[in-house]
Amino acid sequence: MEPTPSQTIGPFLHIGLPWPDGAHVVAGDTPDAIWIRGAVYDGAGELVPDALVETWQADPDGTFDHPDSPGRCEFRGFGRCPTDDNGEYEIRTLLPGAVDGQAPHIDVSVFARGLLNRVITRIYFPHLLDDGDPLLDTVPEDRQHTLIAQRTDDGYRFDIHLQGPNETVFFDL
Amino acid sequence: MTFRRDPDGTHPPLDHPGYRSTALRHPKQPLVLMPQRLTELTGPLLGPGRLGEHDNDLTVQHDGEPIGQRIVVHGRLLDGDGRPVRGSLVEIWQANAAGRYKHRADRWAAPLDPNFEGVGRALTDADGHYEFTTIRPGAYPWGNHANAWRPAHIHFSLFGTSFTQRLITQMYFPDDPLFFQDPIYQSVPESARSRLVAAYDHDRTTDHWALGFRFDIVLRGREATPAEDA
Ligand SMILES: [Fe+2]
């Protein structure tokens, strides 16, 4: 059967998609919870206030709440946050564990008005890259930094540039 | 097992000059190939905890009924091999009968309907079937080009069972005269456009109650051979 084509999420996603607990992959009082925050920028360096950022990740042991995951866990693993008027999103979560010989990472989908399909990127963590990563190794070296979050007081910062001199690396899945 | 890549000619290009907002929002660097590993082969399985009682009937979410043509929109969520995707969350959002969204950024001078939120959720059943009762949304103008109007549509969000299958799209109504000038609809390769158009479904039309429309949604299917690495 032929797959259904994608269409843009449009400018009015906020009425349909945000959930009250969307940004909270874990509850606020969970020990070791971190904030991942960032902004979405367009090719002119302008903030994008009508994007949706979704995250999918393993728990700290590297397992997923999914039947195909060896050692299924009950960690939701999924985060969803629309950008605000300042183009900012935030996700409350736990650091993922290593998965299958890969460095700890979070898969990210970005949807927005003006994006006719989602774009896909990955968040890596600066102190968790010592053993390398098979996907990151395929990214041109001078662009790898766009996939590595920066440490902050209460977690990490991961800005997303859809276009421009600092364009984030996006993947063809 | 990994998922088949969508064939060329399925999705719109990210750079589509007719839709002006793509100009500054599409990546210009080449995309990097992402082999499907465990993170991509799994995904959120969001179930009943996400649904309220009236989430699949957008006509009963308030004390009064919304204005407009009552319709039933239903169909099956399938993978590319025709297998039903079961127990999967389907989210929709739409304009009211006058073409106005209940959104603070929608400034189109059409009336809001106090009895219409324009938001629905449903879970697919064991056959992958979902169903919504709603009202037919109106067309609405936008600033993309002179006299630009979006054809009536309902926004759909689907998860499937993996990060790889995630899809957001729009459902249109048959024979809409506005298709010819809509760059979002036209961004889809021509041979795939009809997959975004619901079919009028007389069998699902209810006498003296509602018109039926059928919209089946197909997500990526599995590769025939096992992946060489997981
Ligand atoms: Fe719309």
Automatic annotation (TrEMBL), chain A:
<dbReference type="InterPro" id="IPR015889">
    <property type="entry name" value="Intradiol_dOase_core"/>
</dbReference>
<dbReference type="InterPro" id="IPR000627">
    <property type="entry name" value="Intradiol_dOase_C"/>
</dbReference>
<keyword id="KW-0223">Dioxygenase</keyword>
<keyword id="KW-0560">Oxidoreductase</keyword>
<protein>
    <submittedName>
        <fullName>Protocatechuate 3,4-dioxygenase alpha subunit</fullName>
    </submittedName>
</protein>
<dbReference type="InterPro" id="IPR050770">
    <property type="entry name" value="Intradiol_RC_Dioxygenase"/>
</dbReference>
<dbReference type="InterPro" id="IPR012786">
    <property type="entry name" value="Protocat_dOase_a"/>
</dbReference>
<dbReference type="GO" id="GO:0008199">
    <property type="term" value="F:ferric iron binding"/>
</dbReference>
<feature type="domain" description="Intradiol ring-cleavage dioxygenases">
    <location>
        <begin position="32"/>
        <end position="138"/>
    </location>
</feature>
<dbReference type="GO" id="GO:0018578">
    <property type="term" value="F:protocatechuate 3,4-dioxygenase activity"/>
</dbReference>
<comment type="similarity">
    <text>Belongs to the intradiol ring-cleavage dioxygenase family.</text>
</comment>
<dbReference type="Pfam" id="PF00775">
    <property type="entry name" value="Dioxygenase_C"/>
</dbReference>
TrEMBL record, chain B:
<dbReference type="GO" id="GO:0008199">
    <property type="term" value="F:ferric iron binding"/>
</dbReference>
<comment type="similarity">
    <text>Belongs to the intradiol ring-cleavage dioxygenase family.</text>
</comment>
<feature type="region of interest" description="Disordered">
    <location>
        <begin position="1"/>
        <end position="22"/>
    </location>
</feature>
<dbReference type="Pfam" id="PF00775">
    <property type="entry name" value="Dioxygenase_C"/>
</dbReference>
<dbReference type="GO" id="GO:0019619">
    <property type="term" value="P:3,4-dihydroxybenzoate catabolic process"/>
</dbReference>
<keyword id="KW-0223">Dioxygenase</keyword>
<dbReference type="InterPro" id="IPR050770">
    <property type="entry name" value="Intradiol_RC_Dioxygenase"/>
</dbReference>
<protein>
    <submittedName>
        <fullName>Protocatechuate 3,4-dioxygenase beta subunit</fullName>
    </submittedName>
</protein>
<keyword id="KW-0560">Oxidoreductase</keyword>
<dbReference type="InterPro" id="IPR024756">
    <property type="entry name" value="PCDO_beta_N"/>
</dbReference>
<dbReference type="InterPro" id="IPR012785">
    <property type="entry name" value="Protocat_dOase_b"/>
</dbReference>
<dbReference type="Pfam" id="PF12391">
    <property type="entry name" value="PCDO_beta_N"/>
</dbReference>
<dbReference type="InterPro" id="IPR015889">
    <property type="entry name" value="Intradiol_dOase_core"/>
</dbReference>
<feature type="compositionally biased region" description="Basic and acidic residues">
    <location>
        <begin position="1"/>
        <end position="18"/>
    </location>
</feature>
<dbReference type="InterPro" id="IPR000627">
    <property type="entry name" value="Intradiol_dOase_C"/>
</dbReference>
<dbReference type="GO" id="GO:0018578">
    <property type="term" value="F:protocatechuate 3,4-dioxygenase activity"/>
</dbReference>
<feature type="domain" description="Intradiol ring-cleavage dioxygenases">
    <location>
        <begin position="73"/>
        <end position="101"/>
    </location>
</feature>
